[in-house]
Amino acid sequence: MTENDARTSGASTPPDLPDVAGGPDDAPLVQLVTPAGARVTTPEADAYRERVAHLDADALRGLYRDMVLTRRFDDEATSLQRQGELGLYAQAKGQEAAQIGSGRALAPQDYVFPSYREHGVSHVRGVDPTARLRLFRGVDHGGWDPKEHNLHLYTLVIGSHTLHATGYAMGVQRDGLVGSGDPERDTAVVTYFGDGATSQGDVNEALVFAAVNNAPVVFFCQNNQWAISEPTTKQSRVPLYRRGSGFGVPSVRVDGNDVLACYAVTAEALERARSGGGPTFVEAFTYRMGAHTTSDDPTKYRSRAQEEYWRRRDPIERLENLLRAEGAWDDAFAADVEAEADALGERLRDEVRALGAPDPSTMFDHVYATPNAVVERERAWFADYQQSFEEPVAEVAR
Amino acid sequence: MSESKNLTLARAINEGLRRSLETDPKVLLMGEDIGALGGVFRVTDGLQKDFGEDRVVDTPLAESGILGTAIGLALRGYRPVCEIQFDGFIFPAYDQITTQLAKMGYRSGGALQVPVVIRVPYGGGIGAVEHHSESPEALFAHTAGLRVVSPSTPQDAYTMIQEAIASPDPVLFFEPKGRYWEKGPVDVAGRGEGATVLDRARVVRPGTDLTLVAYGPTVVTALRAAAAAEQEGRSVEVVDLRSISPLDTATVVESVRRTGRCVVVHEAPTYLGSGAEVAARVTEECFYSLEAPVLRVGGFHTPYPVAKIEHDYLPSLDRVLDAVDRAFAF
Question: What is the pTM for the complete model shown?
């Protein structure tokens, strides 16, 4: 622990983790719920427990619903890709607790810069499920209006958006929306990225800019153990959360499969940012249960034993275990969620299949915000070219 | 109302930046050493003192970080003007500029705008060491979504920097550092209201027999060549492109249709350079007016050479006149 490390609870990484790089070590891990569904009651966890004390049975069931819908979205999208309806899909399976826990800690005015796997976060931010798949369908490079959801578009170049988040946070500072004490005004920015991204120059530069500007930004790293086929040992010799302290950024490692712990550490980091305390680095220790994308084949580089280890730590099962342990499980509620998930699946299948290709001429739209002579000339040429193929309708009729 | 001052090109940019900072509170300057020092070329001299450290920002020494955070600030409604210290140092930011800045408006279907200006002192002739004399403008002009401009006079520098800042599109603003200290009259009362010049080429000197197309540092060279050619009875027209992307093809084509000959001059290597684009478009549109092939004068397909021989690499007056001779001899 360095003095820059944020407060952490005592629960450590399970010792039986098989061949997971950067895994078992003595790094403290914030955990509020065990895989069996028991509340962690160590004194170190107390401060974080307070941050989820207001989450009653209804709220916990709400988190469960979020996670189940995110999982179903993932499964349906994967199937749609297999059926040729999507060009590609990047699964979030296994990371639902990290995304829903952190996402539900956000205030409406907070602004999010995601990577491309944050389907749970875009669910929380109210982005239409079908819109989230437009990019993967190949009909859009984005899919939604970022300002409508306070959620930037997915960024595919690894780590680039962490700088955008930091700059945006510097803008929030200049707007006077930090440290005013008004919870409905003060604003934080969150950026999501993965273990592989921590090696990118942009992520390191973002930490530099955030630190020296004391910018209100939370660096939320989902360490899902794999950057496509490369384990975290190819990225770092130290647990990733320690990256923050070298930049003077408070850092914390959280059990990324524990939705309450993720909620709690994010809430703390957001509060620090909004109150003028500057950036925080969060490492959510989780697992990518699926492939990197539908083009990937994890059997080439990781063991079944490892997948099985993590399958037993499924974040949704953990929350179900908690709900059952606390008498908050309700079969009728579970059935309702299942029915809602079924309806979501059906809707996705129908709507995604109905997403047709845009008119080719739209490729010339929005290249520039102002009229551009080069683009307009090519647009006009292309229109003439297309028209040259059209038969004169009147003559055909004769 | 006009108020004319005799300013260096560097000072004219300084005055333009000052005016933008005064008129739009969302404008801020970012870069390495631009604050107390005023930049290594002193282009931002005195601005931090007058506008404060939050608006004239000395950044960490990281070009990708400067551009990436500028994009974030622009998304939040600010208008960042980034200084890249020297042309050859822009490449750490190349990824942010080409994969992010250029495409943000496009991929959001117009929902987002990123009005970022990138000021780049460029070009050679100043006896500098490696990476300090390059002309990488074609690399950016090749990327859709970016505007690429370069002023050649103090007046244009003053006007164009303000127009670049006001533009909702990202603009690469290439400053001919070899001309920073050349003086010219500047009307500092306004920014030439009504006359948008940012993407309008300008006929600097009229002529009837050949069109010399130039921009940035080579406009002065082209004018000297035109004056020299006049001694030999040749009437040479000089067109200052001002903008490399978009190209004001109409002005160039109108000129070449009258003169029948065209020579393009820039410091950047001619191979796949902006002169190649001008030549292709002129050939397409002026084919029946041309008396000679379109010729190019510029840098060679070599890395920028050492300072002691850079004047043999740069498009000198003699090399421009040589091309003019070849065009007439064809």
Answer: 0.95
Of B68, B77, B250, the CB nearest to A202: B68
Of A255, A319, A244, nearest in space to A285 by CA: A255
Domain made up of A43-354: CATH architecture: 3-Layer(aba) Sandwich (3.40)
**CA distances in angstroms from A368 to A48, A172, B106, B277, listed in the order given:** 47, 26, 7, 20
Q: Where are the beta strands (DSSP E) in A269-369?
A: 280-285
Q: Does A160 touch chain B (CB under 8 A)?
A: yes
In this structure, is the dihedral angle defined by the CA atoms of residues A163, A164, A170 and A176, taken in order, positive or negative? negative
* Whole-number Å distance between alpha carbons of B305 and B298: 13
Instruction: Please determine, for residue B314, whether its predicted confidence score (pLDDT) is greater than 60.
Output: yes
Q: By percentage, how much of chain B surpasses pLDDT 90? A: 95
Its sign, for the CA torsion A230, A233, A239, A240, is negative
pLDDT at B82 over 70: yes
Give φ, ψ of A187 to 5 degrees: -130, 140
Q: How far apart are CA B148 and CA B120, in angstroms?
A: 11
Could you tell me the two tokens for B160?
Answer: 């164009």
Are residues B64 and A146, on separate chains, in Cβ contact within 8 Å?
no
Distances (CA, A) of A196 to A90, A193, B229: 15, 8, 61
**Residue closest to B144 by CA, chosen among B103, B96, B100:** B103
Q: Which residue among A153, A162, A175 places its CB closest to the CB of B108?
A: A153
N-term to C-term CA, chain B = 49
Give the closest-approach CA distance of B95 to chain A in angstroms.
Answer: 9
Probe site for chain B from A366, A376, A378 (most B CB atoms < 10 A)? A366
Sequence-separated (6 or more) residues with CB below 8 Å from residue A273: A169, A178, A188, A189, A215, A216, A217, A218, A279, A280
User: Which residues of chain B form CATH 3.40.50.920?
Assistant: 202-325
User: Considering Cα of A85, then A80, then B111, then B119, what sign does the dihedral take?
Assistant: negative
The reported pLDDT for the residue numbered A10 is: 39
Task: Please tell me the CATH code under which domain B4-187 is placed.
Answer: 3.40.50.970
**pLDDT averages per 10-residue partition of chain A, 398 residues:** 40 43 64 96 92 97 98 98 97 98 98 98 98 97 97 98 98 97 96 97 98 98 96 93 95 97 98 98 96 92 94 97 96 97 98 97 97 96 93 56
Say whether domain B202-325 belongs to CATH 3.30.360.10: no
User: Catalytic pick from B132, B142, B266, B311?
Assistant: B132
- Kindly determine whether residue B76 and residue A145, on different chains, have CB atoms separated by under 8 Å: no
In this predicted model, what pLDDT tens digit does every residue of B10-42 receive, in sequence order? 999 999 999 999 999 999 999 999 999 999 999
pLDDT, tens only, B186-242? 998 765 544 578 989 999 999 999 999 999 999 999 999 999 999 999 999 999 999
Domain spans in chain A, listed from the N-terminal domain onward: 43-354, 360-397
